[in-house]
Amino acid sequence: MLKIIDVDWLHDHVLELTFNDGFHGKADLSDYFQKPPFDQISDFICFALTAEGALRWDDAELSATTLRAITQGELQPISNVVNVEEMEAVLKQAAWESMQEDRPDILQAALRAYVEQLGHKRVTERAGIKSRTSAYRSLDSKTKPNFGTLVKLGHAVIELAQENNATQLQATINPTSPLLPPPTR
Asked: Does 27 or 142 have the greater pLDDT score?
């Protein structure tokens, strides 16, 4: 299923979008916001990224498929290596904006994208959350999550990204050896 995994407001009604298949580009939503129901929305930049990977403004929503059709960009190769510093910056910014605007859905969306990339089961186990259902609920934009749970999930995605990067680096340096730690003496 096609999902938007990252979105940034650029100017006017233009957004920069990244999709889960690696497509990245800019979408001008001016035409949509001149017609109902979008023409009733007074604050364009007050949108939410849904759990389904769509964008929602109040009661109006645009699917990832609709947005992909109007996005000008290109398919970029999907890398298994994650820029951990960028991840930390995104999560810090999302946490700050969530607190400033009293909108936990901002942080939930940022975390959800990384959790989906790294795998729900792995992240939930690393975070020490007993129930994956609880983790799913914490990332649902329709819920008011426990902040402690979001912190655990954030910490887990950062740790897992660091481990993935180390594994990828080891495979690049020595592609013929198995990815096992050196023997202990």
From this structure: 27
